[in-house]
Design brief:
3-stranded mixed sheet, 3 helices, 34% strand, globular
């Protein structure tokens, strides 16, 4: 199986820069000229609009930059304190099954949250990971992927301790009736490096090297 590289960034990575890097890596991986990669990063505050996104889900009050992107899904927020992991994986070496891939990403997030005492759950008909916060459904992690010739890009976004106020200017994932939360908002004191270690330990696809 193709070896997998851990790539980590301490600085904030601009969204367009990240997209260009991913696109280049995907092409190289398709050609057999690069290894698979799991890229851990944070973005500066911004919104992204996926292929199913609607402009009306970003309110006129929004001041953050918005980027249209080739990933699936609708509108979401990215910013400091949110662990984004972009995955460039060759599904031809595993299973050419998008439903299996998404379910595996969800289970990865559930196991990671469980390590910190957070009960992450799936919800029928809703992508992402959810928690029950005082009887109210809140999203704690988003998934948005792209698959080209069975090579993946984009990935997951786990709210560790981001500015949740940034969600007030959008309808996250087009679901206005639900809330958004984070590990910190639920009362757990967890750092991004601690989350990273668990994500690496529970990584479900293959061993990666730094």
């Amino acid at each position: 199986m193709n070896s997998c590289e851990w790539k980590a960034q301490d600085n904030l990575i601009g969204y367009e820069d990240a997209q260009r890097w991913m696109e280049n890596r995907v092409v190289a991986l398709q050609k057999g000229e690069a290894s698979e990669c799991a890229w851990f990063l944070e973005h500066p505050p911004l919104y992204t609009l996926g292929t199913s996104g609607k402009d009306k889900d970003i309110f006129a009050s929004a001041t953050l930059p918005t980027f249209k992107t080739g990933r699936g899904g609708q509108v979401t927020y990215h910013g400091p304190g949110q662990r984004v992991v972009y995955l460039m994986l060759d599904l031809k070496t595993r299973r050419q099954d998008l439903h299996w891939y998404m379910a595996t990403l969800e289970e990865w997030l559930i196991q990671t949250l469980g390590h910190f005492g957070v009960k992450g759950e799936r919800r029928a008909g809703r992508i992402g990971i959810w928690v029950d916060k005082e009887g109210y459904d809140c999203k704690i992690a988003a998934l948005g992927v792209r698959v080209q010739k069975w090579v993946t890009s984009h990935g997951i976004a786990l709210n560790v301790r981001p500015d949740l106020g940034a969600y007030k200017d959008i309808i996250p994932c087009g679901l206005s009736q639900y809330g958004v939360t984070s590990v910190a908002d639920l009362g757990f004191s967890v750092t991004l490096p601690e989350v990273d270690e668990v994500l690496k330990t529970t990584f479900p696809f293959s061993s990666c090297v730094s």
